[in-house]
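cron nightly-structures :: item 1 of 1
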Amino acid sequence: MNAESARPSPNGSTPASAASPSAALPAEPNHKGPARILVVDDDPDVRRVLGDALQLFNYRVDTAGDGAVGWEALCANSYDLVITDHMMPNLTGLDLLRLLRAVRLDLPCLLISGDLPSVEADLAPLLQPGLAVDKPVKLEKLISLVRSLLSSYPIGSTEARTGKTRLTLCPA
């Protein structure tokens, strides 16, 4: 994500931009094109760093400044993975996952938080498929987790089961 494509809109979101090729790493296995990832975090610096790092590894990245904007993005677009903070205004990361799991059970998610709600009784079902990770997370570990989740839940697997190229999450 360069400085021009990384400029957030007033609602704190940025559109996906074309991923730059990386000669150092092979494309994700079993995928047609780069995976599309939604990063949801109320800290603009965290969004920028995560987005930039993921794009260096050829992922297409959209960002959202809070859970409500993230939900709007999920309603409007199809993603292969969601990475979300927990403590955010308007809609927490857990609330976003609750909404998501009510309509799409198979989208992998990473919940990243400095205040991980480990005592939350319903955390495990909300994260399946997915993981919870404490902040700060090293970028190497993040990329490893992203690769692992995407290889375990390959792009197109939902399309193959449903015959749809895009799943509509929200009613029109």
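cron nightly-structures :: done
The CA atoms of residues 113 and 135 lie 5 Å apart.
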